[in-house]
Amino acid sequence: MPDQVKGLMAAFPQPNVDTDVIMPKRFLITITREGLADGTLADLRFDEDNNKRPEFVLNRSPWTEASILVVGDNFGCGSSREHAVWGLMQLGIRGVIGTGFAGIFYDNARKNGLALPIVSPKVRDELIQIARDPDAGECKIDIANRQISVGSQHHPFDMDDATRAALLEGRDDTLDSLKLADSILGYESGLREKMHVNVIQ
Amino acid sequence: MSKTLYDKLVDAHKVCDLPDGDMLVYVDFHIMNEYTSPQAFSGLDQKGLKVWRPEAHLSVVDHVNATRQRDPHDDASKLLIDNLESNCKKHNIAFYGLGDPRQGIEHVVVPEQGLVAPGMLIACGDSHTTTYGAYGALGFGIGTSEVEHVLATQTLRYKRLKTMLVNVEGALAPGVTAKDIIMKVVQVVGAGGANGYAVEFAGSAIRDQDMSGRMTICNMAVELGARAALIAADEKTLAMVKGRAHSESIDFGGTEWRSDQGAVHDQTFDIVAEEIAPLVSWGTSPDQSVPIDGLVPTADDTATPKAKAALERALDYMGLSAGQSVQEITIDSAFIGSCTNSRIEDLRAAAVVLKGKKVASGVNAIVVPGSTYTRLQAENEGIDKIFIDAGFDWRPESGCSMCLAMNDDIAMDGERIASSTNRNFEGRQGRGARTHLMSPAMVAAAAVKGHLADVREFQNEGAE
C-alpha cells in the first residue's frame, strides 16, 4: 500500500448513500470477490436498459477517470456487505472523502486498503466545489501525514491510528492475530464452563 | 468507578491490547449466512487455516432462499446455499438449512434456540446483529474479512466506541409500539447520528417492552448508525432465555449486566413516550418519517439547502407531493416479515387488526414468518387462518424474503409497499420500489384500507 492516494476527485454529495445503492443485491449472488465493478453504483450509473446515465458524475468526462469520491454525510450506511468496498476498489476508487462513515463500511474499507479520510462539513463542502471543476487537477491524500492537497489547498483529515497503520502497512489481520494465539488460549482458559458455547449440530 | 454496560461487556471480552489503540476481543458466538460468508471460507482455504473453535459458530440459510416453496428458485441461490452447507460440513460447523425445523431468519432463530444470553459477545456478517443488545449482550455486524478473522481466531480486532444513552420515559399511547419508538429515535438522532457509538436504551418505556419489542428496538438501532445497541438485563430477559435448546449449556451471568448507577455516557437523548405517535416513513432514509395522521414534509420544513435537496430527491423517488396527507398514499403491496418484525408477537399484533377483515382489492399482501418454529407456533394458534382468510399470502418457508429482495420476492419499478421491515433505501425491495416502513399492525391496517392507515381506528372499532 502506498503512503498516499493520488487522482481526480468526483463530487458525489448526496447524503446517506447506503451499501444497497453502492452494490445492488442482484450482484451479490456470488461466492467470489471478483467481477463486481459493473455492479458498483449500477442503478445510478446505468438506466433500466443498461445505458449509461449521462448525468451521473462518473459517466462524465473527466470524472470517468476519478479515483477519489467526495461524498455526503453517512456514506456506506446499511447492510454489512463488504461487496460494496470490493466493488468500489474494482471500479478504480482508492479514496472516499467524507464527514463520517457507517462503522461496518469503515472497517471493511480498512481491511481492503480503501482510504476514508474524515474532514469537517466545511472542508467537505469546499472539496465538493473543487471537485466540480473539470480543471481542478489531481488530489493527493497523504495518509502518512493525514493531509489532503489539491491545487494550492491543504486540509488535515482525521483517521484513527490503527486504520492509518493498517493502510500504510497493508497487513493481513487474520495472520497477525494468529501470532497472538497464546493470548487467545489464555483468555479461553479463564472462561467458566458454560461460557464455552457449543452449538447443537 | 461506575461503568456503563457497554464498557463492562468490552472489558469482559478483551483478550489483549494491540499497538495503535485497537484491542483483540473474544467472540463467544458467531453466526453466518449464505451471502456474506463464502469469501471468508475461501480466504481460510487460501491461507491454509482451520477454524479455531468450530462449535462456537452457527450457519443459517435465510437471505437468498425462496419462501414460496422449499426448493431454491434458481441456480444462483442454490449455489450460495450449497456452498454454505459444504463449507460447514468441511469445518464441522452447525448448519440449519432448508427443511431444518430450526431454520429461519438468523436473528429470529438465535433467541429461539437459546443461543443469546446476557453478557455474551456475538458477531455476525449482518448489520442487524445489534438485535442481541436486547438481552444485555454485545452484538454487532461485521464484514466478510472479519468473518474470516473470527473463524480463524475466535476474536476480532476492535476499537472501543463512544456511548450514547437514549432514555424513553413514560407510557406509550394505545396503538404505539416498539417499532414506533425506534423509528422516533432514528428521526430524533438522525440516520448516522450514532455513527461511532454504542447506544444504550433505558427508561420506563423500554423496561415496559417485552423481549420481542426490545429486539425490534435494538435491531433498528443500526439505522441511526449505532454499531451496538444495549438494554440492561432484567427478570424479563432471564425468563426469555430459559427453557430453550441451549439454555442449560450457556450462562454468562444475569442481571449484573447493566450500567452502574452514575455511569457516564458521552451523549444523552431524552424522549417522552407519550409524545410518540404511530409513525410511517415517507422518504428513502429511515429517519424520514411522520406520524400517520400527518403530512408529507415540504421544503419549508427543511433547515438547509442540502436537506432541501435530499427531500426533493426522496419525494421524486417515492412519487409523492410535498404537503400531501400521508393517509392518501395508496399501496400496491403489504409485507410483514424481516428480522425487525416477524416474531410471533408481531404476527399476533397484525392478526388482531386483520381478524374478520379483508385485504383491499388489488393489494398484494405477503407474510413471511421469521422462522419455521415461529410459523408452526402461529399455525398452532390459528393465526395463519386469520391471515389467509383476510387474503394474505401465508408463506410456507421462512427467510428475509422481500425485506431485501435477494430471493424471488422482488418488488417492481414504482411498486409501493407498506412494510414491517427496517430500510426504505432506494431500490432496497427492488429497483424503483417504494417502501414505507411501519409496525406490523400498521401494515395490516394499510393492507385492509388499501392506503396508509391509522391502526388506532381499528382498535377503536374493536372497543365499541
Automatic annotation (TrEMBL), chain A:
InterPro entries tied to this protein: 3-IsopropMal_deHydase_ssu (IPR004431), Aconitase/3IPM_dehydase_swvl (IPR015928), AconitaseA/IPMdHydase_ssu_swvl (IPR000573), IPMI_Swivel (IPR033940), LeuD (IPR050075)
Molecular function (Gene Ontology), one example: 3-isopropylmalate dehydratase activity
Domain Aconitase A/isopropylmalate dehydratase small subunit swivel: 4-119
Catalytic function, reaction form: (2R,3S)-3-isopropylmalate = (2S)-2-isopropylmalate
Pathway(s) served: Amino-acid biosynthesis; L-leucine biosynthesis; L-leucine from 3-methyl-2-oxobutanoate: step 2/4
PANTHER family xref list: 3-ISOPROPYLMALATE DEHYDRATASE SMALL SUBUNIT (PTHR43345:SF5), 3-ISOPROPYLMALATE DEHYDRATASE SMALL SUBUNIT 2-RELATED-RELATED (PTHR43345)
Name under which the protein is recorded: 3-isopropylmalate dehydratase
Organism: Aliiroseovarius salicola
UniProtKB/TrEMBL annotation, chain B:
Coiled-coil ranges per UniProt: none
InterPro entries named in the record: 3-IsopropMal_deHydase_lsu, Acnase/IPM_dHydase_lsu_aba_1/3, Acoase/IPM_deHydtase_lsu_aba, Aconitase_4Fe-4S_BS, Aconitase_4Fe-4S_dom, IPM_dehydratase_rel_enz, IPMI_cat
Residue ranges occupied by any Aconitase/3-isopropylmalate dehydratase large subunit alpha/beta/alpha domain in the UniProt entry: 7-450
GO molecular function: 3-isopropylmalate dehydratase activity
Record field: catalytic activity: (2R,3S)-3-isopropylmalate = (2S)-2-isopropylmalate
Keywords: 4Fe-4S, Amino-acid biosynthesis, Branched-chain amino acid biosynthesis, Iron, Iron-sulfur, Leucine biosynthesis, Lyase, Metal-binding
Cofactor or coenzyme needed: [4Fe-4S] cluster
Pathway: Amino-acid biosynthesis; L-leucine biosynthesis; L-leucine from 3-methyl-2-oxobutanoate: step 2/4
EC number per UniProt: 4.2.1.33
CDD domains named in the record: IPMI (cd01583)
PANTHER family (UniProt xref): 3-ISOPROPYLMALATE DEHYDRATASE, HOMOACONITASE, MITOCHONDRIAL-RELATED
Function comment: Catalyzes the isomerization between 2-isopropylmalate and 3-isopropylmalate, via the formation of 2-isopropylmaleate.
Subunit structure: Heterodimer of LeuC and LeuD.
Protein name, entry field: 3-isopropylmalate dehydratase
Underlying gene: leuC
